[in-house]
Design brief:
The complex is a heterotrimer.
Chain A lengths: L2 H25 L3 H21 L2 H6 L1 H20 L4 H26 L7 H18 L5 H23 L4 H21 L1 H4 L5 E2 L8 H6 L10 H25 L1 H11 L1 H6 L4 H27 L1 E2 L6 H14 L4 H25 L6 H21 L3 H14 L10 H5 L2
Antiparallel strand pairs in A: 1-2
Helix pairs in contact in A: 1-2, 2-4, 4-11, 5-11, 5-14, 5-15, 5-16, 6-7, 6-8, 6-14, 7-14, 11-14, 12-14, 15-16, 15-17, 15-18, 16-18
Chain B lengths: L1 E10 L2 E11 L4 E5 L6 H8 L7 E6 L2 E2 L5 H6 L2 E4 L11 H9 L6 H11 L1 H5 L10 H13 L5 E5 L7 H18 L2 E6 L2 H7 L2 E6 L2 E7 H6 L1 H6 L6
Parallel strand pairs in B: 3-8, 3-9, 6-7, 7-8
Antiparallel strand pairs in B: 1-2, 1-4, 4-5, 9-10
Chain C lengths: L1 H4 L2 H30 L8 H15 L4 H24 L8 H22 L16 E2 L2 E2 L4 H23 L1 H11 L1 H6 L4 H25 L9 H16 L4 H21 L3 H17 L14
Antiparallel strand pairs in C: 1-2
Helix pairs in contact in C: 2-6, 2-7, 2-9, 2-10, 2-11, 3-4, 3-5, 3-9, 4-9, 6-7, 6-9, 7-9, 10-11, 10-12, 11-12
The chains are: A mainly alpha, B alpha/beta, C mainly alpha.
């Protein structure tokens, strides 16, 4: 890398940081939040840049990933103490969404299977969590989350088995049918799922006594419920991302990419096609279930109307914009999800549109749908992909028009 | 007559053809020979408008072909039988032929009848799906499909590919007959240099995109250096 | 005999068949766009919906039903052709998820724009056919002038499309352009034009379906009206086989009948469940659709 390209890359990081700060100011409700968010953003960007150095990654890839995840998670946890409740709530919502997104990113980007039903899988996790909590209120949170994940895995298996023999449009359609039917399924079993009103968690989740005692000198900062829940979510998200990062780069991940790109070749090398595809499906549905379970935790309830087909579309949209098949893309998508309503509301206020009018209420749909189209046509690998393409062009001088797609996925 | 002048074609940074020039006279067979990767298929694809050249011109009877759409070039009467035959497997033999006949100046029924007469095997198999034909039958089908529109020029890309020597000989003989009877301008791309040179009038030898020989077929066939280094023939 | 014809079973059968025709039409339009351009159009319900809204505008100016139908149909053709040229053309050759995502985005935008301009309040397209069932011996037969209108229109459209594909040169070119675009070009087929035509036709069929649905006294027109119908139509196409127009129509009709019985004898929630169950079961048995031709190939 010559001097010019290094400087260029630093300028790009700077521009990204400035954009991030600007968005933080627009999206957060008050100034102190915005400042804290900006600081956090800069820390994340710097650490991502630092830990991306090729030499560190080559030396011990797992450790490099762990370090990255750890730094980002801890920094975010630290920042939550400075955020207001609204911002923490949004952050937690976005983090849980990014867990779902990273699962879908894996399924579609790495395994090449299209799924339009991840909103429904989130619903599965959400309702399993709520139903279990209603019957066994004393289960520790971690265990309850694991049970919700298991629920998602089972449903993923059920749907994944027929899915193995389907190609593109048929698979997309089957997952679409599941997403559309989910509402009816919930309604059908409404004695369990609480019908239209959904389920409430039996009692609000409080931080455990031992943790409070740890911080008992001075102010007990974890007593605020939202803060505690946000922190749980962030830790869960960190763990989930760590596993996924390793999965992307592992033998399993490579096998999936092979199945996606070259079926015959994969079979010749001894990869079991059906099993690999089902595994990808199960992983993605488990991740989505975790996301939904976290949402139940954060909101203290699970309602059917949240997990509609529209949610599946939003999930796909934010992931495409963030960058399908990448891990940072899932994070970006989660952020977009959490803050899009705020940003759009700010925009509406600025341009003097009537907030009750027809146009304003549909603005969400118009903007998301429009972004989806524009992104897919001009930047199909999303924001994360744009950055990677840019970096590739610096490192490899010469014709790079047909870079094989695998190369961008190799970085976790 | 088809005239190619200073044709340069590239795929990204890789030049497939560099400054290629030659003439394919009307009513004659011009063979384009060379090893794998010499640029022979690229030449035909550029002639048909499937690939745009970086530089140079292609004219057919002084009409410039570069920049024209493929389907318009085909409608001018320049028929291209692609590499691998390009037979539509999901269609029946008759549907494949009807597709070719859309361009014809005669009615479909008459054109079909002519082809069935010329190639009885197609008539026998007319209702079968094309993917059930053997390699040689498919070659005949794709040629008949190209001929059904009564073209004035015929571009053939490796017709002998994957065929047994006996079938190859029959097909080459058929090409020679057709050229003579219909007065076609034929450009024949072949790796099988010996069979091609037997029926060709002129020959061009390409090597990695450059023309290394351009002469009458007899002269090219007799040249020992060409035979040994570029054509893989016995010396 | 009268009692039999007006019985619950026959009523369900007739009602289901009428609905099934609609699903079959949607399935047909999906098959059309799939066979002519190799893309599954997720906006196949939303595009016609928008076209009917455009036709509605004419209604506001006191034009009659058939004028609105004509305008809607024309709008459908324009939308179909425009979508192909602007949104779909740049995506040929890209990974197959790209057009799916773009069409899903387009669907979202269309519904949002329609709601923004015309609001989500249901509107009706008043057809000249009465929705009141005929009576046989004093009891209602599950057939009304309107349902006859639906059935006859559907059958006419299906027959027209089938004949187009099977017997005409245009149909041959449409199929060839989808199966082997490069070879077709070499044979002089104007492939780009064929691709646009495929979309135009398919949106036209979809618009006819949307017109029928909007003219239905019991449904009316909303931005979301075609969502459920698209889902059922898609299931019919997947079950019957995306390559088989006849298969998907048959699947649509059969599905319509089965679902009518399910809705009547079980409960309305079970309808979509039954549809999904049908989809999963049939895809497990025949991943490419029940009626897709299974042929051995000589390698």
């Amino acid at each position: 890398m010559n001097v010019a390209s290094v400087t260029r890359s630093k300028i790009i990081w700077l521009v990204v940081a400035i954009i991030g700060v600007a968005v933080a100011f627009v999206a957060t409700p008050n100034a102190s939040d915005a400042v804290a968010a900006s600081v956090l953003f800069v820390v994340i960007v710097v650490s991502a840049a630092g830990f991306s150095s090729a030499s560190f990654r080559q030396w011990h890839p797992v450790l490099a990933r762990a370090a990255k995840v750890l730094v980002v998670t801890c920094a975010t946890l630290f920042a939550t103490f400075f955020f207001s409740e609204t911002t923490n709530f949004n952050l937690a919502t976005g983090a849980a969404m990014s867990v779902t997104l990273v699962g879908l990113s894996f399924l579609t980007g790495i395994s090449g299977q299209i799924s339009l039903g991840n909103g429904a899988f989130m619903g599965v996790g959400a309702f399993v969590m709520a139903m279990w909590a209603n019957h066994h209120a004393t289960t520790p949170i971690v265990l309850a989350l694991l049970i919700a994940i298991a629920g998602g895995a089972v449903v993923g298996l059920l749907l994944g088995l027929p899915a193995t023999r389907l190609r593109g449009p048929y698979l997309a359609g089957m997952t679409l049918a599941f997403a559309v039917a989910f509402d009816a399924i919930l309604n059908y079993f409404n004695s369990w799922t609480g019908g239209d009103g959904g389920l409430q968690l039996p009692r609000s989740t409080n931080p455990p006594g031992w943790l409070l005692r740890l911080f008992s000198h001075g102010v007990a900062p974890l007593t605020a419920n939202t803060l505690w829940l946000t922190d749980i979510t962030i830790v869960a998200t960190g763990v989930a991302f760590f596993f996924m990062a390793n999965l992307f780069a592992s033998r399993v991940g490579r096998a999936m990419r092979l199945v996606r790109d070259n079926e015959v070749g994969a079979e010749l090398v001894g990869v079991n096609l059906a099993r690999t595809r089902v595994l990808a499906f199960v992983i993605s549905s488990s991740y989505a279930a975790l996301g939904g379970a976290l949402w139940t935790l954060i909101n203290n309830s699970a309602t059917p109307s949240t997990y509609s087909f529209a949610l599946s579309i939003v999930i796909l949209s934010v992931l495409v914009i963030g960058g399908i098949g990448t891990i940072p893309g899932a994070l970006i998508g989660g952020l977009i999800y959490a803050y899009s309503t705020n940003v759009i509301a700010w925009f509406t206020a600025r341009t003097g549109l009537n907030p009750q009018g027809n146009l304003a209420s549909q603005l969400n749909g118009i903007i998301f749908g429009g972004l989806l189209i524009v992104t897919m046509m001009f930047a199909p690998r999303g924001v994360a992909g744009l950055y990677r393409t840019f970096r590739r062009r610096q490192i490899i001088k010469g014709p790079d028009v047909n870079q094989p797609v695998e190369e961008t996925y190799a970085e976790a | 007559m088809i005239r190619v002048s200073n044709l340069t074609v590239a795929y990204g940074a890789v030049k497939a053809l560099t400054d290629v020039s030659f003439e394919a006279p009307t009513g004659a067979i011009t063979a384009v020979l060379g090893a794998n990767g010499a640029g022979k298929t690229t030449l035909l694809r550029t002639l048909s408008g499937l690939k745009a050249p970086l530089a140079g011109s292609i004219t057919r009877d002084d009409v410039e072909l570069v920049g024209m759409r493929t389907e318009n070039i085909a409608r001018l009467g320049i028929a291209h039988v692609p590499e691998g035959r390009g037979v539509i497997g999901e269609f029946t033999v008759e549907e494949n032929l009807r597709l070719g006949a859309l361009n014809a100046k005669v009615s479909a029924k008459d054109s079909l009848a002519t082809q069935y007469e010329r190639f009885p095997i197609l008539g026998e198999r007319r209702r079968q799906h094309a993917d059930q034909l053997s390699g040689g039958e498919r070659q005949i089908l794709s040629m008949a499909r190209a001929l059904i529109a009564q073209p004035t020029s015929l571009l053939l890309d490796e017709p002998s590919l994957g065929l047994a020597p006996l079938i190859t000989a029959q097909i080459m003989a058929t090409i020679k007959e057709l050229c003579a009877s219909d007065g076609l301008t034929v450009i024949l791309v072949e790796q099988n240099a010996s069979s091609a040179l037997r029926i060709a009038d002129r020959a061009i030898v390409l090597n990695v995109g450059h023309v290394v020989a351009y002469d009458s077929a007899a002269v090219v066939a007799a040249d020992e250096k060409l035979r040994q280094y570029y054509l893989g023939m016995a010396v | 005999m009268d009692a039999f014809l007006t019985s619950r079973v026959i009523s369900d059968l007739l009602g289901g068949m009428t609905n099934g025709m609609i699903y079959g039409l949607v399935a047909l339009s999906l098959v059309l766009v799939w066979r002519s351009t190799g893309i599954l159009n997720f906006a196949q319900g939303a595009m016609p919906m928008f076209a009917v809204y455009v036709g509605m505008v004419a209604l506001g100016h006191y034009f009659g039903y058939w004028v609105c139908v004509g305008i809607a149909l024309f709008a459908g053709f324009v939308i179909g052709a425009g979508t192909e040229r602007i949104l779909v053309r740049p995506l040929y050759g890209k990974p197959e998820i790209n057009p799916i995502v773009v069409m899903v985005g387009f669907l979202t935008v269309l519904e949002a724009v329609a709601a923004a301009i015309w609001s989500s309040v249901p509107r009706g397209l008043p057809s000249p056919f009465s929705p009141i069932d005929y009576r046989l011996g004093g009891l209602p037969l599950a057939v009304s002038p309107f349902s006859l209108y639906e059935i006859i229109t559907s059958l006419a459209v299906m027959a027209a499309v089938a004949m187009l594909f099977r017997y005409t040169n245009l149909g041959l070119q449409l199929r060839a352009s989808a199966l082997a675009p490069e070879v077709s070009r070499l044979l002089g087929v104007r492939v780009n034009r064929m691709l646009t035509l495929g979309w135009t036709l398919s949106t036209g069929v979809g618009t006819i379906t949307a017109i029928l649905v909007s003219s239905n006294f019991f449904t009316g027109l909303t931005p979301q009206v075609m969502d459920g119908i698209f889902a059922f139509g898609f299931i019919a196409a997947a079950v019957g086989g995306l390559d088989s127009p006849v298969g998907s129509i048959v699947a649509g009709v059969v599905m319509g009948i089965i679902l009518q019985f399910v809705g009547d004898y079980v409960n309305s929630n079970a309808i979509i469940l039954a549809a999904v169950a049908i989809l999963i079961v049939s895809l497990m048995a025949r991943p490419n659709g029940v009626f897709s031709p299974v042929r051995t190939r000589r390698v």
